[in-house]
């Protein structure tokens, strides 16, 4: 865009994709670390405006000075915790008892997400929602991708992503974050097995879908093609 867009340029846009949607639930536990409050603030405000649900917030930051919007979270169901003053908050008391009526939403730095992931291992997976800023990247072996619509064979070397290799061979694949967190570049896996490095696919999607910007083939060859998108992808 820096190179090509000027005042007056017409841009084609689409609706935003939401990989961190707020699902209906009787109760919520929100855990925000630092600037991770950004998506969670909107959710909490919306739910409290509707006044229909039990909404608890744990907002974890280093100090009061580094706590954006702290004046908004002073209610009886808000815990704003500063690690400089009190050390790290023990999350176990909030997560020890799994509850199918509660959805846990967490956004923040990787160690916080990892802690929530570990401490909710005994919860039903569908009740835990995390929003990551980046996905882990891993160098893997080269492989061959076959583009199903025309049988084009594309060599994917270790240093290139599947997305980039397909594009260099003339296969247009849409992308956005290119970090494995938005899901825009998802493709269907028709043969072979994917080695997943993304943070967006559900367990149900993984056998038949690959996120081309970060994931690779687990086998020497994989056959991929455009994903038939459902209405929920394009509300
Ligand atoms: Fe966002 Fe691939 S472009 S997940």
Care to describe what's here?
By secondary structure, the protein is of the alpha/beta class. The protein has two domains: 27-131, Nucleotide-binding domain of ferredoxin-NADP reductase (FNR) module (Rossmann fold), CATH 3.40.50.80; 143-226, Ubiquitin-like (UB roll) (Roll). The protein has five helices and twelve strands. The longest helix is centred in the N-terminal third of the chain and has 14 residues, at 37-50. The protein is elongated, with a radius of gyration of 21 Å. It binds FE2/S2 (inorganic) cluster (FES). FE2/S2 (inorganic) cluster (FES) is lined by residues 175-178, 180-185, 198, 211, 213.
**Which segments are poorly predicted (pLDDT under 50) over 5 or more consecutive residues?**
231-235
| Straight-line distance between termini | 26 Å
- How many β-strand runs? 12
Q: What is the ordering of alpha helices and beta strands?
A: EHEEHHEHEEEHEEEEE
Q: Number of DSSP helices?
A: 5
Radius of gyration, rounded?
A: 21 Å
| CATH hierarchy: architecture of the largest domain | 3-Layer(aba) Sandwich
CATH class of the largest domain: Alpha Beta
Order of strands across the widest beta sheet?
3-2-1-4-5
Percent of residues in beta strands: 25-35%
**Main sheet characteristics:** 5 strands, parallel
Mean pLDDT across residues = 89
Oligomer: single chain
Could you tell me which ligands this complex binds, including any ions or cofactors? FE2/S2 (inorganic) cluster
CATH topology category name of the largest domain = Rossmann fold
Helix percent band? 10-25%
CATH H-level homologous superfamily name of the largest domain: Nucleotide-binding domain of ferredoxin-NADP reductase (FNR) module
Q: Per the principal axes of the C-alpha atoms, what is the gross shape?
A: elongated
How many separate domains?
2
């Amino acid at each position: 865009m820096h190179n090509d867009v000027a005042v007056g340029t017409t841009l084609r846009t689409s609706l935003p994709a939401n990989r961190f949607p707020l699902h209906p639930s009787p109760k919520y536990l929100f855990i925000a670390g630092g600037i991770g409050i950004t998506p969670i603030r909107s959710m909490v405000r919306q739910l409290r405006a509707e006044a229909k649900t039990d909404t608890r917030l744990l907002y974890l930051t280093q100090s009061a000075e580094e706590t954006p919007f702290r004046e908004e979270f002073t209610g009886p169901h808000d815990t704003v915790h500063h690690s400089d003053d009190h050390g790290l908050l023990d999350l176990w008391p909030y997560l020890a008892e799994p509850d199918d009526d509660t959805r846990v939403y967490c956004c923040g730095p990787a160690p916080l997400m990892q802690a929530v992931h570990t401490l909710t291992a005994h919860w039903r997976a569908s009740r835990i929602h995390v929003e990551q800023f980046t996905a882990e990247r891993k160098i893997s072996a080269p492989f061959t991708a076959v583009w199903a619509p025309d049988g084009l064979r594309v060599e994917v070397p270790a240093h290139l992503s599947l997305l980039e290799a397909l594009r260099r061979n003339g296969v247009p694949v849409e992308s956005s974050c290119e970090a494995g967190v938005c899901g825009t570049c998802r493709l269907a896996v028709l043969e072979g097995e994917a080695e997943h490095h993304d943070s967006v696919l559900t367990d149900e999607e993984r056998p038949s879908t690959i996120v081309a910007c970060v994931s690779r083939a687990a086998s020497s060859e994989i056959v991929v093609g455009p994903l038939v998108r459902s209405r929920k992808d394009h509300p």
